[in-house]
Hints:
Helices cover 58% and strands 6% of the residues. It has seven helices and two strands; from the N terminus they run αββαααααα. It has a two-stranded antiparallel sheet. A hairpin with a 6-residue loop joins strand 1 and strand 2 (45-49). Helix 3 (62-80) runs parallel beside helix 5 and helix 4 (88-102) packs parallel to helix 6. The chain starts with 7 loop residues before the first helix and ends with a helix.
Amino acid sequence: xxxxxxxxxxxxxxxxxxxxxxxxxxxxxxxxxxxxxxxxxxxxxxxxxxxxxxxxxxxxxxxxxxxxxxxxxxxxxxxxxxxxxxxxxxxxxxxxxxxxxxxxxxxxxxxxxxxxxxxxxxxxxxxxxxxxxxxxxxxxxxxxxxxxxxxxxxxxxxxxxxxxxxxxxxxxxxxxxx
Length: 178
């Protein structure tokens, strides 16, 4: 026999190592998706089950997003923005600022594509946009005011703005002088 027979002591040592490995794996399994947190009010440690919280959160609802986009945002803008060919450029400027926000800062590329779809954005972003537009409808309905609100919303999140050519640079510079 070229294989050495393991002594009882070696077998016991190997068994202990295997048990330790299983214990380590078991501990990893027990803490998976959990995190320790300190409760600020009472200073106690508490365990948070991240996976359970993720599952309990409400996921985006496609019907709700469709309604927010078409019945909320688009419908309000269509109803309250000026109509006609002579106001097409003004509507485009406002819509572009809206789309920058809904696409979380993704501007239109020079080739006319964006690579992002505002209808698929986060529901909380759509809700914020509906709130902004509704507030504008109820308070001023001034188109410049709406543009400035959208501009400031994009500034708040650091998204930037749609720049089509160098003619808008003086405006952006003036807005950022504050």
